[in-house]
Hints:
The structure holds two protein chains of two kinds. Chain A has 15 helices and no strands. Chain A has helices at residues 5-25, 30-37, 42-50, 67-87, 93-117, 122-128, 147-154, 175-200, 202-227, 234-239, 250-257, 261-268, 275-279, 290-304, 313-337. Chain A is globular. By secondary structure, chain B is mainly alpha-helical. Chain B has a domain at 22-49 and 64-90 and 130-175. Helix content of chain B is 64%, strand content 8%. Chain B has four helices and two strands; from the N terminus they run H-E-E-H-H-H. Chain B has helices at residues 3-49, 90-105, 111-114, 132-179; strands spanning 67-73, 79-85. Chain B has a two-stranded antiparallel ribbon with strand order 1-2. In chain B, a hairpin with a 5-residue loop joins strand 1 (67-73) and strand 2. Mean pLDDT of chain B is 79; it is low at 88-117. The A-B interface holds A 68, 71, 107, 111, 114-115, 118-120, 124-125, 128-130, 175-176, 178-179, 182-183, 222-223, 225-227, 230-232, 289, 291, 327, 330-331, 334-335, 338, 340, 343 and B 36, 39-40, 43, 46-48, 50-53, 55, 57-61, 124-125, 127-133. Chain A: GO terms for molecular function: proton-transporting ATPase activity, rotational mechanism. Chain A: Keywords: Hydrogen ion transport, Ion transport, Transport. Chain A: This is V-type proton ATPase subunit. Chain A: It holds the Pfam family vATP-synt_AC39. Chain B: It is found in: Cytoplasmic vesicle, COPI-coated vesicle; Endoplasmic reticulum-Golgi intermediate compartment; Endosome; Lysosome.
Amino acid sequence: MLEGAEFYFNVDxxxxxxxxxxxxxxxxxxxxxxxxxxxxxxEDVKIHLQTTDYGNFLANQTNPLTVSKIDMEMRKKLCRExxxxxxxxxxxxxxxxxxxxxxxxxxxxxxxxxxxxxKKSVKEILVxxxxxxxxxxxxxVNIAETPSDLFNAVLVETPLAPFFQDCMSxxxxxxxxxxxxxxxxxxxxxxxxxxxxxxxxxxxAEIMCPILEFxxxxxxxxxxxxxxxxxxxxxxxxxxxxxCGKLYPEGLRLLxxxxxxxxxxxxxDHYGVYKPLFEAVGDGSGGxxxxxxxxxxxxxxxxxxxxxxxxxxxxxxxxKLKEQEMRNIVWIAECISQRHRTKINSYIPIL
Amino acid sequence: MAAxxxxxxxxxxxxxxxxxxxxxxxxxxALNARVEEGWLSLSKARYSMGAKSVGPLQYASLMExxxxxxxxxxxxxxxxxxxxxxxxxxxxxxxxxxxALRRRKGLTRTPEPESFPALRDPLNWFGILVPHSLRQAQxxxxxxxxxxxxxxxxxxxIDWGRSQLRGLQxxxxxxxxxxx
Lengths: 351, 180
């Protein structure tokens, strides 16, 4: 691939890059968060959000205002922006957008399958599915009994088809297998996305590959942390780790043998990038959790992506930053509605 | 009954009542704290897992209880509330139900015993790899359950204590005019 994106990037993608930079400028600032934290009720939150770029997005909501309504409306707004970008994109940016939506599709598939396990109606679950992960065969997901069934009958035409390599099996889908399926799908997806970015080369690879490596390693750490004390065996655990990160291969092998948090920390100490992150984790209920530390690092990397021009990473970074903003607002709103304000400042400021 | 004895009994009953009330208040504060903690931990879990992964979509509308309440009589004849893990009782219920099914359907339904293994942990409704905050929420709610049972027992003791108090006060009033 010819280097020198600055010569021809703007021909196809300049308009969209300008647009996404404009959208990024409208993310909430520290002052906005300070105002939100001081609200007493959800109605106050709505009034404060009217002064930001969100505007009157809650105007059509009936009383009483709940946190899940706020979440849904914010998500709809993000979806509108994303669909606009996607509809105006050309190759290879369109493939990039398709890769981005695959993660939401995986979430939706798993949600539908869990719902089938709990005997929920498809309509009920479709309402809660992530709008960015919508695909036409969604309603048929709940008829599948095994992963092979799922692939052959439902997903073979969707963008998720290539990720089913390691997941084909005849086991019936109970909770353990659904969890394994989710993680294996996500691992294949992440590795495919990483390869796409790397093959594209140029600034996109320089920005996206570190971000995706971090995502892979973060998943490995979180899977390990959450698997302590569960019925997941160490071998099963190792098959769930994405291999496109810095931890591959020695770190992943060590992680698979870890049995508690301290052993995990010792694995992380071998890597200069992860050692300071683990040191920032507070112990007990006072300080930050590992997940918080990872979210902060993700926000850092995504903000830095905007310092370079002529690459696709700005779209990925904007979507992730917007999602973090939504998580922040939902957290603040939950603390306000539960009247439990001690941890209200645990959001992660972006700008 | 002599008035001084009655007064002494009244005093001791009053003291016991106040002690029970204090204990009830303390338990109520603890229960509120546990429930608040539990809900906040659930919000934290939603923060990491996504808002739709921790919600009514994850559990069935009909569910088997893990913990049941039983009542028993204490020495002073008052009711006590206690909690029992339901798994201890289900194996006994399978037998007659299975026989009833057999009679109705006329087929041998061997799958029945397998559908009541150790009762599934509700934590697994949300997946196998759940974040720590969800486990914390479960622990907080479990502690709250025990507190709720204790509070119910205390409430009964307090009501009984108040009725006793009223009875004794009536008797005292009857004795006072006589001795006066």
